[in-house]
Write a structure and sequence with these properties.
Blueprint: H1 2-16, H2 24-32, E1 40-56, E2 67-83, E3 86-101, E4 109-124, E5 132-142, E6 167-179, E7 183-196, H3 199-202, E8 218-235, E9 238-249, E10 255-256, E11 262-264, E12 272-283, E13 287-297, E14 325-337
Antiparallel strand pairs: 1-2, 1-14, 2-3, 3-4, 4-5, 5-6, 6-7, 7-8, 8-9, 9-12, 10-11, 12-13, 13-14
Length: 338
């Protein structure tokens, strides 16, 4: 709950510090139409969503959770600096959701946790009719709090991840095709990616954790990277955003144990994939229904079937997808755009 309140506070502070610019309306119109601008200005845009679900049962013949509460918060924001041929874009995506239930004494259980920041600088090649930029990109991804496997009877004793564990940092120069802020395709043949993880997680298994070797806290990679982003106000009340990231590690190779046996297969053809979709339907003035879907494939995060206390595999609703990591959310609640 504290993390949700922090997101609320961040949104309020951002709103109170917002600067009014004389050319914002004009530049924003050009930006929505997918046109590059040749002027000096800041463009600020953010959306904050807060939703929840509460339930209470007594003598309910159909059964169910006697009392429950779910809270979900989403913050999407970007700040763009236009300076003639220069453009500096900063984007943040933050998600956090908690579930409380009477059956486990209202111990909070996390259902969503994401903190993703991208900073990108570009210099346009040619006049304002050109859509190509020489660019540099910095991306950092982590989470707010510890994660657990709630299917284990003693799940509180051992977390599976934590704040900055893992922390993915990617730095890359490249070429960007850009049409305002509506469409961006960034390509880099030399992207360095670093994965930071606490030794508390990498020391638990011979293969380490999140691709970081046993008892280490850092892994370095060099490879090719592509990031494509698209956002569009389909109507006045419907907004759609999509993102596709692809990464191929040139240094990928098989991992062997001390006996020479392969314990993890890998090669540059195992491309890491992040495919993200978000659509918001706004109704009335301060309410919306939001649907999000994220699919991730990472060869360093294999699919390990979850088992119960007796060692029997737990059947998942979408377990047949194997190594794919899938997250789907649907929220109805308060929204504010600033």
């Amino acid at each position: 709950m504290k993390k949700v309140l922090l997101l609320v506070g961040a949104a309020v502070l951002s709103l109170s510090s917002r600067a009014q610019l004389s050319k914002v309306d004009e530049i924003y119109a050009q930006r929505v139409e997918g046109q590059n601008v040749d002027t000096i200005a800041w463009i600020k845009n953010a959306n904050f969503y807060l939703g929840g679900n509460q339930g209470l049962l007594h003598n309910w013949s159909a059964g169910g959770e006697l009392a429950s509460l779910a809270v979900n918060a989403v913050l999407n924001g970007n700040i763009v600096r236009y300076y003639n041929r220069h453009v500096w874009t900063n984007t943040v995506d933050a998600n956090y959701a908690l579930f409380y239930a009477y059956s486990n004494s209202f111990q909070p259980r996390k259902t969503d946790d994401r903190l993703d920041y991208t900073s990108k600088y570009g210099y346009r090649l040619g006049d304002k009719n050109s859509h190509f930029y020489i660019s540099g990109l910095l991306n950092a991804k982590t989470q707010f709090s510890k994660g657990y496997n709630y299917d284990l009877p003693n799940w509180r004793d051992s977390s599976t991840s934590g704040f900055l564990s893992p922390l993915y940092v990617l730095v890359s120069p490249g070429i960007e095709y850009r049409r305002g802020s509506m469409l961006s395709v960034f390509l880099s043949p030399a992207a360095m990616r670093m994965t930071f993880v606490s030794k508390d997680y990498t020391s638990r298994s011979d293969v380490g954790a999140f691709g970081v070797p046993y008892n280490k806290n850092l892994r370095m990679e060099m490879g090719a990277y592509m990031s494509a982003r698209y956002q569009k106000d389909i109507t006045k009340n419907i907004t759609y955003r999509s993102r596709l990231d692809l990464y191929s590690n040139y240094l990928a190779k098989n991992t062997y144990d001390i006996n020479g046996n392969v314990i993890k297969k890998d090669n540059p053809g195992n491309i890491d994939i992040l495919f993200d979709h978000f659509i918001a339907f706004k109704f009335f003035k301060y309410f919306s229904a939001n649907f999000g879907l994220t699919a991730i494939y990472d060869n360093d995060v294999p699919f390990i079937p979850t088992k119960d206390a007796n060692g029997n595999p737990i059947k998942e609703p979408i377990g047949g997808l194997g190594w794919w990591q899938i997250k789907q959310t649907f929220t109805v609640g308060f929204t504010y755009k600033f």
